[in-house]
Amino acid sequence: MFGGLVLFRDQINELLRNHYSDGAVNEAALYAHLDSEFDVGLNLLSSETHGTHVLDLFAGAPMGEPPGRSGERPIVAVVLPQLAVRDSSGTHSEFFVQEAVAWINNVSKHFTTAEDEQLKLVTNFSFGLLAGPHDGGSLLERSLATIPARPKAAAVLPAGNSHDSRTHAVAELSPKKPKFGIELEISPLNRLSTFVEIWRPKCVTESDPRLTLSFDTPWGGFEEAGPKFGQGFEWRHENKVMMRTYHLSVQRSCDGAVSREVAMFAILPTTANNEDLPYAPAGSWTVSLTLNSAEQETVDLWIQRGGSVFGYPTLGRQSRFVAGQPGIEDLGTLNALATADQVVSVGGYVGSDQFGPASYTSAGSARFYQLLPDASAPSDQSYSVRGVVASGTFSGSYASLSGTSVAAPQVSRMLANCDFGNSAKAFVEQQASRDPTNEPYRLGHGRLLRR
Fold it and tell me: What would the pLDDT profile of 274-319 be if each residue is shown by its tens digit?
């Protein structure tokens, strides 16, 4: 372990006893103590938190049932540090998520049955990213794929909430149409950076990129001269860096013969707490791609997630492609972590609308290796009664939260309660196909837990 704190059951019970008075645990004092003592940033004085809600849907006792009635099953919960979570782009989360996955894999090996067999492991990670290769090849995807690679293990993630977010665009480039331009809305009062990734398809490694970029900003336009792989470019205004671009060649084969080129540009926040810090202009930015080749090419552009995370102060505002432009796609908007190998991806449906897809639930695409959600689960009771009810922060309280992140733990719970054999993914797809849908790109093979 690089760092962190582990609280075992005996220590948790001791903390509860230390804050017990007048016949009950003083929960507010306990949470405040945890935050001040360990600086975990739990923000548990809120009446509802995303982590508590998801944990209850996954592993909580049914309402009205005494704890322990359904059997003694170990629960391992990981709280990522504030640095990893409050920046929704995932810029700071990669290392911590890999550490969390490795720790869960290691600690779970110590739990065995009476016959000394290793227990089944079901892991739920209700978090998502918009940008990435979407092909299972990123470091985070490969890390998450280590869980279902184990015997009797499953990893479940939400399909994502970006169907209508205008954060994905597709550029079709050819010798007859060698240029593509698209306009972005860079949000004002955004205290987080904006990241946009441009992914080419797999191709033979090239000495020079076949694509060049140019930009037009509210403070003027500029062109990038098409640097070699690994080189970057800075745009400065009044001698202050406003934006940087990065070119990477991502290896996709052992001998390096096949790769994917990705160009990523990062734009400064559009507001700053300190007047001495630079900030980028909000408003309309245009990115243009030029093809310098005789071969046709299809390129994907993703704006990384930039909004604020539930339960944290409002720092970021999501940037988007300007509505109505050619090239904006709602297909291929799956959570960039849910495309990991053998990971179960769960979309969300609305109970009152003939169990149709929630407006936000992300879509797969035939272009992306036939990647679709594996199944769907309830994420809204109706369009007027949003969300799914689960535990609030304090004992006896409840809350209703919406999104595919509340659909996923319900499927995780189903897997924990059954024998899914050698492949949780195949099991979920088979179970979901019993209630098929005519919208497989959004609801997968079918609906689960239909009420």
Answer: 878 899 999 999 999 988 888 888 999 999 987 666 656 667 789 9
Phi first, then psi, for residue 156 (nearest 5°) are -125, 130
The pair of three-digit structure tokens given for residue 420, joined into one six-digit string: 């899914």
Per-residue pLDDT tens digits for 318-340: 999 999 999 999 999 999 999 99
- The label of the residue with tokens 């600690």 reads 107
Please state the pTM of the whole predicted model. 0.90
According to DSSP, the residues that pair with 181 across neighbouring strands are 288
d(CA 107, CA 92): 24
Instruction: Give strand pairing partners of 298.
Output: 172
Question: Helix, strand, or coil here: 368?
Answer: coil
* DSSP helix/strand/coil, 94: helix
CB atoms within 10 A of CB 322: 14
Antiparallel, parallel or unpaired: β 344-350 and 375-380: parallel
- Token readout for 215 is 């930009």
CA distance 126 to 346: 10
First-to-last alpha carbon distance for the chain, in angstroms, is: 43
Calpha distance 139→329 (Å, rounded): 25
Structure tokens at 305: 């997630």
**What distance in Å separates the CA atoms of residue 108 and residue 123, rounded to the nearest whole number?**
11
In one-letter notation, the amino acid at residue 271 is T
